[in-house]
Prior knowledge:
Helices cover 36% and strands 24% of the residues. With 436 residues, it is α/β, with parallel strands linked by helices. Helix 1 (14-25) packs across helix 12 (305-321), helix 7 (162-174) crosses helix 8 and helix 13 (366-376) runs antiparallel to helix 14. The model has no long low-confidence stretch (mean pLDDT 95). L-homoserine is lined by residues 136, 161-163, 190-192, 198, 203, 302-303.
Amino acid sequence: xxxxxxxxxxxxxxxxxxxxxxLQQRSxxxxxxxxxxxEIIAVSARDRSRDRGLDLAGITWFDTPEDMxxxxxxxxxxxxxxxxxxxxxxxxxxxxxxxxxxxxxxxALLAKHGVELAVMAEEKGALLxxxxxxxxxxxxxxxxxxxxxxxxxxxxxGIMNGTCNYILTKMEKEGLSFExxxxxxxxxxxxxxxxxxxIEGNDTAHKLAILTTLAFGSKISADDIYLEGISNITIEDxxxxxxxxxxxxxxxxxxxxxxxxxQRVHPTMVPLDSVIAQVDGVTxxxxxxxxxxxxxxxxxxxxxxxxTASAVLGxxxxxxxxxxxxxxxxxxxxxxxxxxxxxxxKMKSHEGGYFxxxxxxxxxxxFASIATRMAENNISLExxxxxxxxxxxxxxxxxxxxxxxxxxxxxxxxxxxIKSEKYLVNEPQVIRIERT
Length: 436
Ligand code: HSE
């Protein structure tokens, strides 16, 4: 059997601890599968004294990830620290500079520095694997990077944040508040260290930016993503969506249009009978539409220790099975230097259906005025209803509109015109509808 693959793991949180356990428990089986043993020879984590329930005997401890990346005699540096900059970035750069392979789950790092790191890895002949960075255990990176080669992708979209999907599902099924559901997601280890990254959509945006590059061959451009989180979604929206035959999901969508690539992350209405609407809880789903293959939908666990560790393990095993001197898969699916410039499609040119919920004063002419504002902006309505679920005589009324496909620009103008009238009681809620 070949020499063992020596790995160093930086970060012993939920994912790192799961990974150590799996590698130790399945060491014999993995050695047979990979043709050589995978040996953890170094670790680094913030607190050395913390009891993680792990057996770290015989493993060299490094106080910082960077120190480990610079000094440890390892073949693979596993980065499970997180964060776009700081310790994780320094350590990954140090490892690649030594030509050491890197496996990372760090979507924020890749969204910000992915192209540069890919260039570095390719120049050094090192692998940079990151299956765990997008949609947890779902092997979407491998699918895009390898299996769909030659396909022209037109749209990629999905549920890529387990915390948000868990919250939206729990709110709908159990009628619990947003805050209570978020607390539970944190307790279960799904949420980021700062859960604002989850609920405000940044985490999904980082993942989407990576997928966009793999799907369309353009440079990573996370700053060009239109972003809306789920923190202002109410039980009332969820119920109204359901009454109209929809469910609300936080989707990341990247789409090729005539004017460029549209990348957006926002709460989205999907038809109740669509497969993606059935994706509940922490589960993620990614759909790819491409010309040769057609439609692909991958569904699976999107967050949590074991699911994420499974993807990290797959990446490590790929390195263990690879042989020096053999041409490797480019980090971002094609040589990093050949990625095209990113061309952004303006959000106001987005075309689709819209759900609009208005809370208005109960007085004559409001309905007619809303319909007029829509007509003035050439917006065709699929339905307009006074929503009786929350009706109180003389009190504020809820009016729900669903539009046919229209331009975002027209919706913004119509909503602005409606806001300038004095009958709105609070901010209008606008949720995009996605064809799935
Ligand atoms: N916080 C992330 C989520 C973890 O909820 O999906 C996986 O990236």
